[in-house]
Amino acid sequence: MLTEEHIPFAVSENLRWMEEAPRFDLVIAPEAPPAQLERYVRDGGRLLVAGTTPPPSIPIGNVTGKRTTQGYWRIQDRTGLPSLKNTDLIFLDGEYLEIAPLVRPILTLIPTAMFGPPEKVWSDKVETTVPGLVFADHGKGQVAYVPWDVGSLYYRHSSEAHRGLVADLIDRLLPAGRQLTTNAHPLVEVTVMDQPERRRTLIHLVNGTGHNDTAYFPPLEIRDIRIDLPRDVRRVRAVAAGLTLPVTVNGRSRSFTLPRLQAYEVIVLE
């Protein structure tokens, strides 16, 4: 999901980075979050947790138990969820952690309803006050807790509602916005590699349109990929294409456009 959204990230089980530079803006814990994350949040970090194990030592409300259902989450408040402006329901299939009702819930549970016969489908629907998303301030930091496994559901079904929910939560938690934004196709993988000793940054773009399950075919050429970064950039070179890309200034951002991407490109920013 992060790759499709072109959000640069690093995967690690080594938590020593929390005591070292550089400091990460956001930590995402798709499974049981380690206890060390409590200090990270208390000192000003941002944390997104998804699953039935709540963040450690961080108050997210009274937990009443773990349940399993096939139902929906009703979107009660779209503030901060621009990707879901035309969505009313997000489906749930699996476990969720039942938390006491919130004063102003964002998502609320609709449990399993009758699915047949056709004339009675949905006739016994019940709306509840069980929350499907909790925000909590802790010390100087903030936590967003999704008490169900949205990551596994997206892996199984690739629902746009699940993708939009996570993307909007990331945007809400990032203190200074995304590291980069782009109009690249979701199958273009973007990797950002800083080289401070050489005073440059490398952006790798891998065209995944030729990948199909276990096979790989010549990828489709993708044109006019625009990239925006909130950093000072004076020179941009596309190595494979052999081009120097013009840079435009948009407030804090620097923008450039790659005319074409075939299988692979590396862009050098100086």
What features would you describe in this structure?
The radius of gyration is 21 Å and the shape is globular. Helix 2 packs across helix 3. The protein folds into two domains: 159 residues, Class I glutamine amidotransferase (GATase) domain (Rossmann fold, 3-Layer(aba) Sandwich), CATH 3.40.50; 89 residues, Golgi alpha-mannosidase II (Immunoglobulin-like, Sandwich), CATH 2.60.40. It has 270 residues and is mainly beta. The strands form five sheets. Strands 9-10-18-14-15 form a five-stranded antiparallel beta sheet, with no helix packed on it. It has three helices and 18 strands.
Low confidence ranges: none
The CATH topology of the largest domain is what?
Rossmann fold
Strand content: 35-45%
How would you state the average pLDDT, rounded? 94
* Counted beta strands: 18
Give the full name of the CATH homologous superfamily of the largest domain.
Answer: Class I glutamine amidotransferase (GATase) domain
- Total helix count? 3
Q: Indicate how many domains the architecture comprises.
A: 2
Distance between termini? 29 Å
User: Which architecture of the largest domain would the CATH scheme give at its second level?
Assistant: 3-Layer(aba) Sandwich
* Main CATH class of the largest domain: Alpha Beta
Secondary-structure element pattern, one letter each: EHEEEEEEHHEEEEEEEEEEE
How would a textbook summarize the main sheet? 5 strands, antiparallel
